[in-house]
Each structure stands twice: as structure tokens, then as C-alpha cells.
């Protein structure tokens, strides 16, 4: 097992032990790791292009990381959308881009148009959206980036488990 997989696995274990109980919502797709929706205030994502100069530090780990038993696909880091996400993660964490590691990547089906990162007082299309989930690791921090069918990744400070993993 590679270091990114070990990091993601350790962070998954830590985040699952820190989770409280919550009720499951009907119609919520599960990925098998958790049968509950996290409670709390809805997250606020920031888009990668045109990010403000003062970026917030990552505040939490994703609630349910994707499976980490496989390496990311070859050439993933060279995709322009992934390069932008890596640059954003480096800026948020105040490190050089080579310190950002692709910890996990998986194609997903998001439960709705929020792409697993709903904002307060926002309405979203109530249909499933195919996309991708990218987890980037910087030291002991795990940053979650979500993409819809357009392939543009958006940073999500407080992701939900509102997705189903698709075969890659």
C-alpha cells in the first residue's frame, strides 16, 4: 500500500471515530462506508478559478473518502483540472505544489446538483449528476475537490457523503 493510501485510510478511521450519530435520509445513496448523513451547518465551497488571495485553511477531512485500494489513474495529475486543484491546495496549505499528493480519485454519481457540497440557502437540481471526487493530501490534511460533468474541480471545505462510487 502506498503512502497516500495509508494517509487516506488513517484519516478515514479518524474521521469515522469522531462522527456522532445522525439519521439517514430516504433516497440518499450510500457508498457502503456509512449509513448516515452528517449533521451540522451546510458547507460553503470555493471555486478553483479566480480564488481570492486570502484563502481559508482546510477545516475538516471529507466525511467518507472513496476506496483507497487502487492508485490514481496514470496521467491524472497532468490533467489541467487536476493541476488547478493541486495549485489551489498548495496555496490553501501554504506549501509548494510538489508537496501536494493525490491521495484518492474516483468517478462518482452525486446525489444532486450540490455535488456533495451544499451551501446554505441555495437550491440545487434534484437529480443525480455524474462527476469525480479528488482527495489531495498535504502533510496531515486531506482536501476534498468535487467535479460535475464539466470536469472542473471545486474545493469543498465540509463535504457530505452525498454520492455513490461509480466503476472507473
Automatic annotation (TrEMBL):
<feature type="region of interest" description="Disordered">
    <location>
        <begin position="19"/>
        <end position="93"/>
    </location>
</feature>
<feature type="compositionally biased region" description="Pro residues">
    <location>
        <begin position="63"/>
        <end position="75"/>
    </location>
</feature>
<feature type="compositionally biased region" description="Low complexity">
    <location>
        <begin position="47"/>
        <end position="62"/>
    </location>
</feature>
<keyword id="KW-0732">Signal</keyword>
<protein>
    <recommendedName>
        <fullName>Secreted protein</fullName>
    </recommendedName>
</protein>
<feature type="compositionally biased region" description="Basic and acidic residues">
    <location>
        <begin position="76"/>
        <end position="91"/>
    </location>
</feature>
<feature type="signal peptide">
    <location>
        <begin position="1"/>
        <end position="20"/>
    </location>
</feature>
Amino acid at each position: 500500500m502506498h503512502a497516500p493510501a495509508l494517509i487516506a485510510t488513517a484519516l478515514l478511521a479518524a474521521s469515522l471515530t469522531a462522527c456522532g450519530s445522525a439519521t439517514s435520509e430516504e433516497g440518499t445513496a450510500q457508498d457502503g462506508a456509512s449509513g448516515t448523513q452528517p449533521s451540522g451547518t451546510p458547507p460553503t465551497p470555493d471555486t478553483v478559478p479566480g480564488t481570492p488571495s486570502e484563502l481559508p485553511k482546510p477545516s475538516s477531512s471529507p466525511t467518507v473518502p472513496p476506496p483507497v485500494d487502487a492508485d490514481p489513474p496514470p496521467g491524472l495529475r497532468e490533467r489541467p483540472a487536476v493541476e488547478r486543484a493541486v495549485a489551489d491546495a498548495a496555496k490553501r496549505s501554504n506549501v509548494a505544489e510538489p508537496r501536494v499528493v493525490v491521495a484518492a480519485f474516483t468517478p462518482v454519481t452525486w446525489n444532486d446538483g450540490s455535488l456533495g457540497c451544499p451551501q446554505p440557502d441555495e437550491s440545487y437540481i434534484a437529480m443525480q449528476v455524474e462527476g469525480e471526487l479528488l482527495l489531495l493530501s498535504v502533510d496531515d490534511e486531506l482536501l476534498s475537490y468535487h467535479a460535475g460533468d464539466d470536469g472542473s474541480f471545486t474545493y469543498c471545505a465540509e463535504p457530505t457523503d452525498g454520492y455513490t462510487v461509480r466503476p472507473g
